[in-house]
Every structure is written in structure tokens, then in C-alpha cells.
Specification:
This protein is α+β, with helices and mostly antiparallel strands and 999 residues long. 48% of the residues lie in helices and 19% in strands. Strand 22, helix 19 and strand 23 form a beta-alpha-beta unit. GO terms for molecular function: catalytic activity.
């Protein structure tokens, strides 16, 4: 606002309203108002003229509000914020003025164009406003309208200029992406473009690889941070999880402000990497809802701050930068592929030419080899055979000088059955020495020897000069090039075939050596057939010796076979994993024990049938290798818990049997069963984790009715079933009532089917309370069977049979429907109901639609419904379960993790699932308030810390005492459930009396 003061004589203005001028008692001349209004160029200056002309308005704390965008964007001439109440009053006054009604005497509409531009004078006392002449207010309103129009033009010009600047920047970005500049040059160009739009001295670009979950800083410029990340390596996302870049990429939301402001914007703890900036602005680069990277600018300069306009502008530019980067990368990838394809075509063309030439050469070689093979079968003499061989080789190679050398039978000499040479027509046999022929036979491969190679071989002592070409002495010209290939009989070298040249223009190549190798194979094959008759004679002579050797060998094999049979017998009777006897061995022991018992009824024995509780959870969560390790440890502990001559066997999976040979009294079997349970419950380390294993044991004592092994095993199995039905972690001895109950399973199954038809299953509700005030916040629905003759039955009395006969799903959905129906009244004043969902219901993809259908049918708000799942459910198929839980969460149905801490799910695993609540298992709550509470407090503290960081509610199960309640409340636990607050009851029990009667 300009400095304004009226001069009584001349009308000059030189002081500011609100300062010393308003303290004067004399009013300025009326004629000066119009002059100073014309000088005012902004709404603030018009307001200053008004307050200078009417000091009483200033003393009354009057204010002028104006806007170019309607009542919702009012500005104050004093810069004060316009509160919502005051904005509502002004909006009402403007609406009344438009209808010709004065609503608020404290407000005067100076100007209103009926759309967006307006100006209002507010006098809290209404006194000075009422004393101000209307002509003054009208003059101020007219000038205010003109200044608002000027202000609008300036704003329009500014926005147009900003839009033009942005358009130029986008065109420049597009040009860079299509240019031939290298990627570093293009990135520097992008930096320069963004620097024209905002302060960007410190700027970096980071890209996110979703498949590898890594970050790459492709461009980084910082005037303060000297430890910039390398631009040529990928950083794991875990290194930046708690940094601004990590939050920016992971959440896909722009972040802006000082460090403290940024801490309030992120969802977790914030770690500052590098130098701490005064102001920071980062925006994600998005494509189809996925984050592909981010742009970040920051400042270390006092007074330079980023605004919302900068954030919006950088966010708009980010999309175009991403497009430019993708286009540049696509062009680079296309160029690389073109180069690779061109290289491949060139290589393919060269390869094709080589193949054509090789094919022609191979056809010629094949024809020659066929000729040589045919010669081997001819009846001609050896001289003619060798001459024909020479002629055939001459069609492939330069073979004017050609010979074949063979090692004599005694292996001492080298003979030459065929020798053709221009300078030495004949070559007699000679002792084996250091000639070229012997060198080829020693190396067992063809080779080419020219003059330099000949010198090198001579210097290394591989050959002697006088034996270079197989002659004792040479009076003719020296050999210029020599090529030879060994002759093989099976794997034994029997001779050599060689060619040599005395002319420098006729040199041999490695390819010639390769051809000669093929010829050598054919020659050797022919020679082998000629020698076969002699070999047959020698073989007959050796036959007797070999028969004797074979007889000794068979004797040794028989001994080895007997050992193998012994090992096989052990393997048949023992488990390969644990080394324990198997079911076959145990059945044999039980059969012998029964026979002995029938002979001596006063010497009974006992059979213990053992099953590891929740073994499937170990396999599902830690893997089958960990499960195998657990079975081995259980086997060792079972063996250490037994007497001699008792036996333990692994029957199958996690089932074991223990045979107690002599049991003088029933209590002895129970004592050993308890000893086994105690041994198994000791902590064991499996796959790097400490576990406690529990088991259920069924005991059968031999009796006269046990005539077969199966009868004994059946009684022990029935007792084991009873132990599991009674809650696991215990042993149970068989009696006749169990047999009757087992036989009645079919009857219970028929009753279950009938109960489903008439709807005898209903939910009982147990309250969930807020620990701070013990107010009910929800109810857990628990299934009960209203049996017509046996009364209300709990799940342990019928669910096992329902599982076996496949009726448990139908029972679940009948209970879910009833729970939703009763939940309407239970949640009428707030809260929610929870239902327990087993892993079976996640095997399909319709859990969400079915639950929503039940809620709609019962007219229950889906947000009033929650499901409870166990850790085993989450670990069965984590990806599929997470998707279904997310679908339920999208439909407002929350999820609670039940019995948390009893499975093998790590604390850090829960963040993968959209959970609303963790329910701490009662096993950790029970020790609270007692002496052994430190371990439970540590676990509960860890769960509370995890849940707090993930914004998940925590509920403690099984609270039965005030000490437990107070301990949990002191630790910060929010919610609880247990008999202390109420046992499961029908819905009517928890409703007010009037609602209960209405229901």
C-alpha cells in the first residue's frame, strides 16, 4: 500500500493511512478525494485513499475485502486472513445486495460485477460506515472496479506469459528427446529448461525399476552435497525406504517444504541423506498410475521458497520429461537393435557362404571317402589298394609325395607299406625315433609343419633333423611343407599317413590337415578289417584266461549283491528321512507283541499314536526343508524319551507310533506319554528360528479283544482323535465310550445335515471393548449349534465331524448370514461385528462378492462387518490372499489377523496385507500380572510397536483378570476381549431391553 496523506491546502498526499495522519481531527477537503482516487492503481491503494479520507473508518478497524475469483478467494487490504465465518457473512451480504436487500449493516458492497470481481467494506461498529457519505462510497466503488479490471488484465497477462513460457519449455523438451544428443547432454538440457521455469540450481532425476525394485540416479547436480549418488549403478529401494526419494517413489505423491514440513507429509520416519536443504520439492513421474521415477529440486538459499504453483508446474513438466526420457531410451534401444541386427545379418551371410563352400567340399570329401571305403572291400592286392588310396587322396589334396607308415607288431620299428616320393622312391623300415611321423603319433592329432615350425620343433627336441621326412638321409631338396595324420585302431595309434611338398608355392593348411584326418580314419578302418582275423586268433588264445578272471569277478559281485540286499532290507523297514523304523517294521513288532500277550496275558503292552499339532503351518510358513528338519529333531527326542526295549517308528508325515513292550500298569504308559510331551515342548531351533512343538497322543493298552494289529492301531488312532478334539497338546487313553462315539460319527453327520436344513446354527457374540473406558466397540460372532436334545453345543463338539463330511462350509455361510442379520441391531449405534473366515474360503475368487451379498440382503453397512483370518491363511497363498483382502478393503470390509504370534509369520510380514487389526493370542496375555511376564511383555511390546508404525489397531484376546487389563492398558494396547468383559451370548443379550423385545 502506498504512503498517502492529504494536505489541507493543496490536496497533496504523503503519509500512510493507519499511521500519524489518522490521528488528526480535521477531515481532508472533499475535492481531493477524486484526485487521489485517480492516482490509485491497485485495490490496496484505493483502500488506502478511502481510509485517508475517512480516518474514522480506520479508527473503527474497518477493512476492505476484494476478489477476482468470487467470495471464496477474498483478499484483505491489510493482508489479514479471511476466516470462514467472515467469508460466509460477506457472501451473504453480496447475495443480498444482488437482490436489493441490505442484510448486514456492518458490510457495504463497494463493487460487484455479478460474477467474480467484487469489493466489500466491513466496519465492525457500523458507526463510521453509517456516517460515510454514499457519494464517497460510490466514488471508491467506481475506482475499485477500474482497479480490479486492471488487476485482472495483469493477472491474465501473467498467466499468458507463464503459459507461453511453459509451452516453450515443453517444445524444448520434445526437441531434446528427438535430437541426436547423447543422453548426458539431453539431461543437462532438461536441467536448463526447468531452471528457466523455477529455481533449479540443485536438481536430480531418478528412475524406478519396478521389476528389480531399484533406483537409478541418471542425473544429479547439487551445489552443496559433494557425495552425490553414482549415476551408473542401481540402488536397492530398501536403501531409500525412509528417505524423501523413497517416499516420493513409493507413495506416488508430490512432496514440498522444509524438513519439518516434509516429516509431517510422509507416512513414516524420515531420514535425511546428504546436505539438509532449506526447501525441497519433488514430484513423481507417473504413467498409467505407476511411478516410473521422480524430479527433485531443492534450495540452500535463504529467501528462495517453492510455491504450490511451482509444484503444479513441476508435476506437469514431469510427465513430459518422462515421455522425453522414454523416447530417448526407445531411440537408443532401436539403434542398438538395428546395429545388432545388421551385425547378425552380416554374420549370417558370411556363415551362409561358408556353409555353401563347406557343403560343396563335404560332398567331394564324402564321395572320396566312399571310394576309399569301397576299396577296402575289394579283392585286389595290397599294392593296388595303396595306389588307389593314393589316387583318391590326390583328388582332395596335393599328394605327389605320399606315404603310409605302420608300427610293427613288436612296437620297435616304423615300416612303410606304401611310399611314393619324387626324390626317394623307396623307404625301408627303421627304428622308431624323433621323426615327424613319430611326432604326429605322439601328439595323436594331425599337424602341418612348415619351415618355421620345423625349426621350432627341432629346437624343442621334438624331432631330429635327419629323420624329418622319414629318411635316414636326404640327398634331394629340403621339404618345404609337410602334413600328417595318425592312424587309429580304436583308441590306439598304429601308424601315420603323410604328404609333403618340395615347392614353396604348394603349402598345406590346417583345413588340409582336417581332410587328411578323415582319410586316415578310413585307411585305419580298412587296416583293422585286414587284421581282424589275426586278432580273432589271439582272442581265442586269451579266452581261457579271461573266463578265469570273470569267475573271480562274479564271486566279488555276489558278495557286493548280498551287501546291497542287506541295505535294501534295512531301507524297506526304515524311514529314509529320520532313520526310524517305518510302518511295516512297527506292524511286525505289534504283531509279535500281540502273539506274546496272548501267550502271557499277565504281560500287557501299550501302543502310543502321536501326531504333531499344526505341523502343516511349519511346512507352509518355513518350507518343507524346515519341516523335514523338525521331523528329525522330533525323532531324536522320541528316542531319548523311551526305555529299552521300547520302539518308535514314523508311520507317515508327522505321525509316529511308540511301542511300550511291557507295561505293568496303565499309569506307566501315561507317564511316558507325559515325558514325551515335555521333551517335545522344549524349544528347538529350526531354520534359524526358535520353535516350540506340541503334540497329541492316543494310548491303547493291549486287551483280549485285540486280535489283530489293525485293531490295536485303530484304538490308538481313536484315542488320538479324542485328544485332538479335546484341544490338542495332551494325551488320552482309549476306553469303550470312545469307540461308541467314533461309531456315532455317521449319526452326527446326519444330524448336521438336518440342522442345516432347519437353521439350528446361530452366532453367539462376545464383546470387543476399548480398554481405556471398557466401552463395547464391536462383537465377535462365534458359531453354536442349538441341538434339539443336547442343548447348545460348542464348535469343539461338532466341527471336526463337519470337516470330515464336508459340511463346514455350509455351516460357515449359514452362521455368516445370521451374524449379518443380528449385526444390524448390534451396530445400530456404532461399532462392528467380526466373523472368522477359514483358508478354504480364499480358494475361490468370490469371497468379497458373497460377503457383500449377505450384507446387502441383511441391510448391514459393509463398514460394520470385519473378517478374522489366521496366520496360516495368509501364508497359504500370500499373493492370492492379499488380492482378495484388498478387494474386501475396497468394499469397506476390514480384516483382523487372529491368534497373532502363535504361527510362524514374521512381524515384518504383515505389511504386505491390508490389515486393520492384530489380535494378540491369549497365550501371551495369560502370563501378564504374574511372575513370568517379561517374555510376554516383550512380545506384546514388539507387536504394539509394529502396529503403531503401520497404523493398525491391536486387540488382546483372553483377558480374564483386572491385572491383565491394567498391564495391557499401561503398555498402550487399545482394545481387549475376554471373559472379564463378557462371555459369548446370543445377540438379544447385548441389546437394550426395548430393542431386544422388538427383535
Amino acid at each position: 500500500m502506498g504512503m498517502i496523506q492529504f494536505d489541507q491546502g493543496s490536496g497533496a498526499v504523503d503519509a500512510a493511512p493507519g499511521s500519524e495522519w489518522q490521528e488528526r481531527s480535521a477531515a481532508p477537503p472533499a475535492g481531493a478525494l477524486a484526485s487521489f482516487l485517480l492516482r490509485a492503481q491497485t485495490p490496496d491503494e484505493v483502500s488506502a485513499v478511502l481510509f485517508a479520507y475517512r480516518p474514522d473508518l480506520f479508527r473503527a478497524n474497518a477493512q476492505v475485502f476484494w476478489s477476482l475469483e468470487g467470495p471464496g478467494a477474498l483478499r484483505s487490504e491489510a493482508g489479514d486472513a479471511v476466516g470462514p465465518v467472515q467469508a460466509a457473512r460477506i457472501a451473504a451480504a453480496i447475495e443480498g445486495a444482488r437482490r436489493g436487500i441490505s442484510i448486514d449493516p456492518c458490510l457495504c458492497v463497494l463493487f460487484d460485477d455479478g460474477t467474480s470481481s467484487l469489493a466489500v467494506l466491513h466496519d465492525p461498529t457500523a458507526v463510521a460506515l453509517g456516517a460515510t457519505p454514499r457519494a464517497v462510497l460510490d466514488a471508491v466503488g467506481i475506482r475499485m472496479a477500474e482497479c480490479l479490471a486492471i488487476q485482472r488484465l495483469h493477472e491474465t497477462a501473467r498467466r499468458a506469459n507463464q503459459a507461453e513460457q511453459l509451452q516453450r519449455a515443453l517444445f524444448a523438451i520434445a526437441d531434446l528427446s528427438g535430437s541426436e544428443q547423447a543422453m548426458p547432454d539431453m539431461l543437462r538440457g532438461l536441467h536448463a529448461i526447468i531452471a528457466e521455469l523455477m529455481y533449479a540450481e540443485n536438481f536430480y532425476i531418478v528412475l524406478h525399476d519396478r521389476e528389480r525394485d531399484s533406483l537409478r540416479f541418471i542425473y544429479y547436480v547439487d551445489s552443496v552435497d559433494t557425495e552425490a549418488p553414482a549415476v551408473d549403478r542401481d540402488f536397492p529401494m530398501a536403501e531409500f525406504e525412509r528417505r524423501l526419494t523413497g517416499y516420493l517413489v513409493r507413495d506416488g505423491k508430490a512432496l514440498m517444504g522444509t524438513t519439518e514440513e516434509l516429516r509431517r507429509q510422509v507416512r513414516g520416519p524420515l531420514q535425511i541423506g546428504g546436505a539438509d536443504s532449506l526447501d525441497w520439492l519433488g514430484v513423481p513421474m507417473m504413467r498409467d498410475g505407476e511411478v516410473h521415477g521422480a524430479l527433485v529440486v531443492q534450495t540452500y538459499v535463504e529467501g528462495v521458497r517453492y510455491r504450490e504453483a511451482d509444484k503444479a508446474l513441476l508435476g506437469f513438466v514431469a510427465e513430459h520429461v518422462l515421455t522425453a526420457l522414454e523416447r530417448k531410451q526407445s531411440l537408443a534401444e532401436l539403434e542398438r537393435r538395428v546395429r545388432e541386427r545388421t551385425q547378425q545379418l552380416a554374420e549370417a551371410n558370411a556363415s551362409l557362404r561358408d556353409k555353401v563352400y563347406g557343403l560343396e567340399r563335404a560332398e567331394h570329401l564324402q564321395a572320396t571317402l566312399y571310394r576309399i571305403a569301397a576299396l577296402a572291400n575289394s579283392d585286389e592286392g595290397s599294392d593296388r589298394f595303396y595306389r588307389d588310396i593314393h589316387a583318391a587322396v590326390g583328388e582332395l589334396l596335393y599328394a605327389e609325395n605320399f606315404y603310409i607308415g605302420l608300427i610293427t607288431d613288436d612296437g620297435a620299428q616304423l615300416s612303410f607299406p606304401y611310399y611314393a616320393d619324387l626324390h626317394a622312391p623307396d623307404q625301408p623300415p627303421r627304428p622308431l625315433g624323433r621323426g615327424l611321423s613319430e611326432y604326429v603319433m605322439r601328439s595323436r592329432s594331425a599337424c602341418v609343419v612348415d619351415e618355421p615350425e620345423f625349426v621350432a620343433l627341432t629346437q624343442r627336441g621334438e624331432i631330429e633333423r635327419t629323420l624329418a621326412i622319414g629318411k635316414v638321409a636326404s640327398d634331394g631338396p629340403p621339404t618345404v611343407c609337410w602334413v600328417g595324420a595318425p592312424l587309429f585302431d580304436a583308441d590306439e595309434v598304429i601308424g601315420v599317413v603323410a604328404l609333403q611338398s618340395y615347392a614353396k608355392e604348394m603349402l598345406y593348411t590346417p583345413r588340409d590337415a582336417e581332410l587328411l584326418t578323415f582319410v586316415a580314419h578310413q585307411i585305419a578302418s580298412s587296416l583293422k578289417r585286414r587284421q581282424s582275423a589275426e586278432q580273432l586268433r589271439r582272442l581265442n588264445a586269451d579266452l581261457e584266461r579271461r573266463v578265469e578272471a570273470r569267475t573271480r569277478e562274479l564271486s566279488e559281485q555276489i558278495a557286493v549283491r548280498e551287501q546291497v540286499e542287506a541295505r535294501l532290507k534295512h531301507q524297506i523297514m526304515h524311514d529314509p528321512l529320520t532313520g526310524l523304523p517305518n510302518r511295516l517294521y512297527m506292524r511286525d513288532r505289534i504283531e509279535r507283541a500281540l502273539a506274546r500277550f496272548h501267550r502271557h496275558p499277565d504281560r500287557p503292552f501299550a501302543l502310543l499314536y502321536l501326531d504333531i499339532d499344526r505341523f502343516k503351518v511349519v511346512n507352509d510358513s518355513l518350507g518343507h526343508l524346515a519341516g523335514d528338519e523338525l521331523l528329525k529333531e522330533v525323532s531324536l527326542r522320541l528316542q531319548h524319551s523311551l526305555r529299552q526295549p521300547d520302539a518308535v517308528a514314523r508311520l507317515s508325515g508327522d505321525e509316529f507310533a511308540v511301542l511300550l513292550e511291557e507295561v505293568t500298569e496303565d499309569a506307566a504308559a501315561s507317564q511316558i506319554a507325559q515325558r514325551i510331551l515335555d521333551a517335545l515342548q522344549e524349544p528347538m531351533t529350526i531354520a534359524g528360528r526358535e520353535l516350540r512343538v506340541y503334540a497329541s497322543i492316543g494310548i491303547a493298552i493291549s486287551a483280549p479283544r485285540h486280535q489283530t494289529t489293525d485293531a490295536m492301531l485303530q484304538d490308538a488312532d481313536i484315542a488320538l482323535y479324542g485328544a485332538k478334539s479335546a484341544g490338542r497338546r495332551r494325551f488320552l487313553q482309549f476306553d469303550e465310550s470312545m469307540q461308541d462315539g467314533r461309531r456315532d460319527v455317521l449319526g452326527i453327520e446326519n444330524e448336521l445335515r438336518a440342522a442345516l436344513q432347519v437353521g439350528q446354527f446361530e452366532p453367539y457374540f462376545q464383546p470387543l471393548v476399548r480398554l481405556a473406558d471398557r466401552q463395547r466397540v464391536g462383537y465377535e460372532a462365534l458359531v453354536r449349534w442349538n441341538h434339539p436334545t443336547r442343548g447348545v453345543l460348542e464348535p469343539s463338539q461338532f466341527l471336526a465331524v463337519a470337516e470330515e463330511c464336508g459340511l463346514v462350509d455350509a455351516i460357515d455361510w449359514q452362521m455368516y448370514r445370521a451374524a449379518c442379520t443380528n449385526g444390524v441391531e448390534l451396530t445400530r449405534d456404532g461399532g462392528y461385528i467380526t466373523i472368522n473366515v477359514s483358508p478354504r474360503h480364499f480358494q475361490g475368487n468370490d469371497l468379497d462378492s458373497r460377503l457383500l451379498g449377505l450384507a446387502a440382503s441383511a441391510k448391514l453397512d459393509p463398514s460394520r462387518l470385519r473378517i478374522e483370518v489366521t496366520e496360516g491363511t495368509l501364508l497359504g497363498d500370500p499373493e492370492a490372499v492379499a488380492k482378495q483382502l484388498q478387494k474386501l478393503a475396497n468394499a469397506s470390509i476390514a480384516t483382523a489377523l487372529d491368534d497373532f504370534g502363535t504361527g510362524y509369520c514374521s512381524l515384518g510380514y504383515v505389511h504386505r496385507f491390508p490389515l486393520r487389526m492384530l489380535k494378540i493370542d491369549r497365550s501371551f496375555i495369560e502370563p501378564l500380572g504374574g511372575r513370568n511376564k517379561r517374555r510376554s511383555e516383550a512380545v506384546i511390546g514388539a507387536v504394539l510397536a509394529l502396529a503403531g508404525s503401520l497404523d493398525i489397531e491391536v486387540l488382546a484376546e483372553g483377558i480374564e483378570t483386572e491385572a491383565q487389563h491394567e498391564a495391557l492398558l499401561a503398555m498402550g494396547c487399545g482394545y481387549g476381549q475376554g471373559f472379564l468383559y463378557g462371555r459369548p451370548r446370543p445377540a438379544a443379550h447385548w441389546l437394550p431391553l426395548d430393542q431386544s423385545r422388538a427383535a
